[in-house]
């Protein structure tokens, strides 16, 4: 019996592998996850802007060879400070609520701090279940 998209995937935390962006072969994986899970459409140029200029700030999470999460970030000067920015953060639904996004964020922020960032910002769209049902 096949699991529905909403069912939680059963796994041990140690089965999740995290890796830094390692080149063009990772780009379709990132694009697929973001296009599948986020509401804002991005062009190939947007993805390349981030992963080519800040590859060290892009991480992917895998479970048994399947890409299940990603984070894409940048950093730079902003109002006399060096600031990091989380542009895209995705974990597919069956894997949510298990600390994978937290680990992706932690890894990115660690690299940002090591690079001299004094602050990090993240802009997200919050979807209220109450609003969706009313």
Automatic annotation (TrEMBL):
The keyword Acyltransferase applies. Signal peptide: none annotated. One of its GO terms (molecular function) is protein-N-terminal amino-acid acetyltransferase activity. Belongs to the acetyltransferase family. MAK3 subfamily. GO terms for cellular component: NatC complex. This is N-acetyltransferase domain-containing protein. PROSITE patterns: GNAT. It holds the Pfam family Acetyltransf_1. Residues 16-134 form the N-acetyltransferase domain. It comes from the Eukaryota. Keywords: Acyltransferase, Transferase. It comes from Microthlaspi erraticum.
């Amino acid at each position: 019996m096949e699991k529905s998209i909403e069912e939680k995937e059963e796994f041990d935390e140690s089965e999740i592998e995290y890796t830094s962006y390692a080149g063009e072969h990772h780009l379709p994986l990132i694009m697929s996850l973001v296009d599948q899970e986020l509401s804002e459409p991005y062009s190939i140029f947007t993805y390349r802007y981030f992963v080519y200029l800040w590859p060290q700030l892009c991480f992917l999470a895998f479970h048994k060879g399947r890409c299940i999460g990603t984070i894409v970030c940048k950093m730079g000067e902003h109002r006399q400070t060096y600031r990091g920015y989380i542009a895209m953060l995705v974990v597919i639904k069956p894997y949510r609520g298990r600390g994978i996004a937290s680990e992706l964020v932690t890894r990115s922020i660690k690299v940002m701090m090591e690079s001299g960032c004094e602050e990090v910002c993240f802009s997200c769209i919050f979807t209220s279940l109450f609003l969706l049902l009313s």
